[in-house]
Amino acid sequence: MNSLVSTTAIEAQSQAASEEVVRLTDVKRRFGTTSALDGISLTVKRGEILGIIGRSGAGKSTLIRCLNGLERADSGEILIEGRDITELSEQDLQPLRRRIGMIFQHFNLLSAKTVEENVALPLKIEGLAKGERLKRAHELLELVGLADKAKAYPASLSGGQKQRVGIARALTARPALLLSDEATSALDPETTRSILALLKDINRKLGLTILLITHEMEVVRGIADRVAVIDAGRIVEEGQVWSVFANPQAEITGSLLGGIRPQLPEHIAGRLSAAAGSEAILSVDLAGPQAQGALFAELSAALPHSFRLVHGGIDHIQNQPVARFFIAVPARDPALAGKVEQFLTARSARVEVLGYDTDHA
User: Fold this and answer.
1) Full DSSP string of 50-98
2) pLDDT for 256-289, tens place per residue?
3) In 10 A of CB 40, how many CB atoms?
4) Which parts of the sequence belong to the ABC transporter domain (predicted)?
5) How many CB atoms lie within 10 A of CB 118?
6) Of 55, 43, 111, nearest in space to 82 by CA
7) CATH number for the domain that contains residue 98
8) Which helix (H) or strand (E) holds 118?
C-alpha cells in the first residue's frame, strides 16, 4: 500500500512538472553590491500567458536574461521544461535556447534582408535547406498576417508590421516558450492592441506559453491570464489578472494600476481632510456578481440616508466584472461611515475611508 501511494505521488509530481514550462525557485542575481533578483520564485504553466510587471530597475530585464541563459543566476533553480539551465554549459544551452522564442521592443530586424529572410534566419543558422526554411517562413508570415510582405525590406514596414515579423521569426523553431521583452512599448495604442490580439490568437492556436515583461498594466489587462508584480528584485504580488486588478495588495501594484483604474478626481481629493466634514468619502472596490448588482440600492434600503455616487465605473477583465466606486456618506451621524463600511465589507467589497469633504454643501 505504501509503495502504491508513493508511486502515485511520484506520478502526480511528474504530471505537474510536465504541465510547467518554467519553474524558478529562489533565483538570485547580484551586480556588485546591487541585488537585481532577490529570491524570485514563480511558475508558468503550459499554454499560459503570464505578465511580469514592474517599474524600470525592478529586475525585469535581468529576469528575462536569466530565463534565456544570457545571464547566469548566482543561486537558485531555473527549470525550462524540467531541465535546470543553471547547470548547463554554453554548448548544452544552445539546443535549449531553440525551445525559447524571443521578441524585442525594437524588433532587431536585419535591414539588408527581406522579411522572409529575416524570419528564416534562425533556420539558416541551424543549417536547414533553403526550401525548407522559406516554406516555414511563409507559413509563419501567413499566421501573422504578412504573407504579402515576404519580399519587402524592413524599412518599408510600419512599426506594427516589423513587430509581426519579429513574432514570426521567434516562432520558426516551434518554441515551447515565447519571451516578450517590452514588445509593445515602441508602438502606438492601436497597434499595441493589434499585436496583443495576435499574440492571444497564437497562444490559442498553438497552445504557446508566453511570458510578457512589461511596465504597462494595459498590456497585462489585455492579454495575460496571471500577473506577477516585481519590485526591487522580488515578486511582491501574484494572481489572476482580474483578481489583482480588483484588489491590489502591494503599494506598487496600486501605483501601477493608477492610470487605468478610476481615481478620485483631483479637485475632490485635494480638499479632503482628516477632520470631520459634511461628507465622508469612501472608495469601494468590488469584483464578481456584486460589482454589477443592486448593492447600492440594498445599502440605501438597509441604511436609509442620502448616499451620493461621486465617481467610478465597471470594467470587465477575463470576463469578470471589476468595479471601483467613490461614494459620499453624510457625516452628521459620526457612526454612519463605519456602518456603511461594515455593510459593504460583509458583501465582499474592499472599503476605505479616504477622508472628509469639508467644502460640499
Assistant:
1) EEEE--TTSSHHHHHHHHTTSS--SEEEEEETTEEGGG--HHHHHHHHT
2) 988 888 899 998 898 888 877 788 999 999 888 8
3) 25
4) 22-257
5) 23
6) 43
7) 3.40.50.300
8) helix 115-126
State the amino acid at position 126 in one-letter form: E
What number of CA atoms fall less than 13 Å from residue 188's CA on the CB side? Answer: 5
**Stated length of the chain:** 361
User: Do residues 282 and 340 touch, judged by C-beta distance below 8 A?
Assistant: yes
Q: Does a structural domain hold residue 193?
A: yes
Q: Which residues pair with 80 in a beta bridge?
A: 22, 83
Q: What are phi and psi of 7, to 5 degrees?
A: -65, -40
- Where does residue 82 rank: exposed (0-12), middle (13-18), buried (19+ CB within 10 A)? exposed
pTM (2 decimals)?
Answer: 0.85
Q: How many domains does the chain have?
A: 2
- Strands (DSSP E) along the chain, which ranges? 20-31, 34-45, 49-53, 75-80, 83-84, 100-103, 177-181, 209-214, 226-231, 234-240, 272-273, 279-287, 308-317, 320-330, 350-357
188 is written with which cell numbers? 502606438
* Within a domain: 2: no
